[in-house]
Amino acid sequence: MSADVGTLDGSVAVVTGAAGGLGGAIVDALLRAGATPVLLDVAGDALEDAARAIEREQGQRPGTIPCDVTDPAAIEDAAAWVERRHGRCDVLVNNAAILERSPLEEHPVDLWDRVLAVNVRGYFLCTQAFGRLMIAAGSGSIVNVASLAGESPSFGNGAYCASKAGVLALTRQTAVEWGPRGIRANAVSPSFMRTPMMAGASPEFEQQRTHNVPLGRIAETSEVAGAVVFLAGPGASYLNGVNVPVDGALAQARAAGWDGPAR
Ligand SMILES: NC(=O)c1ccc[n+]([C@@H]2O[C@H](COP(=O)([O-])OP(=O)(O)OC[C@H]3O[C@@H](n4cnc5c(N)ncnc54)[C@H](O)[C@@H]3O)[C@@H](O)[C@H]2O)c1
Q: β-strands 36-41, 12-16: how paired?
């Protein structure tokens, strides 16, 4: 058997949070790999802007689904729409997420619930609805965007860290339950990227993060998107249930007690 590592030619790929910073880069990378992306996001206007930009570049407008990943009925409708329009779903990238910061002792319960609802329940609902199309086809690939925060605590980000740990558990669970149905599920764990989600990060935080990473720089969204497309595609055909840190070895540096070159 020979696999073409680079191509997703003809694959239908649903991307949640497609109007966001990383989501946009994932859609670009999927297009370059030959896939037909379907863009899903709760931010309807930004979604339309993204689709128009693709239409200008590619001459063809991608499918867009403005919907909230926490709404089970809307996600069922979204999967039904993809089935009607494309007849199948080969790839699902669960990427839509939110970040709310608060110390644990003051954490508003409604915000905790909201973060878990979008970041874990939303991933589950999309996995279930689009996964049913994959089960019917006997094949598919799911890539869950997790975070380094899923394995290491970070001050003031309790709900987000708990949600990303949940994403890693969901990834392993999906891999084991659906591997026998021909479906793979894997995760990527980025560290810091400059996206709207991190708009509130101070220049000092970014400098610190740059200093702490053995590669000496933060990731471009395109570099994380490249890992997502690789995991989605045939080059990763025997990868199932893994979490790929796309962090320039930040986690390994932390484990080694290295926090950057001497200043
Ligand atoms: N930016 C970083 O430093 C960083 C680091 C690690 C992991 N991540 C992860 O990368 C992924 C993408 O984040 P980003 O940095 O591009 O953020 P972003 O805010 O730019 O994009 C998130 C997108 O998700 C959409 N979204 C939010 N709630 C939704 C909902 N209920 N239903 C549908 N869509 C919804 C938003 O409208 C937005 O377009 C997330 O899973 C995030 O946790 C980001």
A: parallel
Encode burial over 173-190: b for 16+ CB neighbours within 10 A, e otherwise.
ebbeebeeeebbbbbbbb
The catalytic residue among 160, 178, 192, 230 is 160
Please give the number of the atom of ligand 1 that sits closest to the Cα of 24: 16
Q: Is residue 160 flagged as an active site residue?
A: yes
The pTM of the full predicted model, rounded to 2 decimals, is 0.98
The ligand 1 atom at the shortest distance from the C-alpha of residue 196 is: 20
Q: What is the pLDDT of residues 168-188, one digit of tens each?
A: 999 999 999 999 999 999 999
Structural domains for the chain: 12-244 (3.40.50.720)
Q: What's the rounded Cα separation, in Å, for the pair 64 and 38? A: 6
Q: Is 187 helix (H, G, I), strand (E, B) or coil?
A: strand
User: Do 155 and 116 touch, CB atoms closer than 8 A?
Assistant: no
Of the candidates 222, 245, 195, 225, the one whose C-alpha atom is nearest the C-alpha of residue 93 is 225
Q: 56 alpha carbon to ligand 1 midpoint, in Å?
A: 24
Higher-confidence residue of 2 and 33: namely: 33
Strand pairing category for 91-94 and 63-66: unpaired
Q: What is the pLDDT of residues 189-203, one digit of tens each?
A: 999 999 999 999 999
- CA-nearest residue for atom 43, ligand 1, is 97
27 Cβ below 6 A of ligand 1:
no
Instruction: Point out the ligand 1 atom lying closest to the alpha carbon of residue 117.
Output: 31
The answer on pLDDT for 158 being more than 50 is yes
How far apart are alpha carbons 163 and 168 in whole angstroms?
9
Residue 92 and residue 125 in contact, taking contact as beta carbons nearer than 8 Å = no
What average pLDDT is seen over the chain?
A: 96
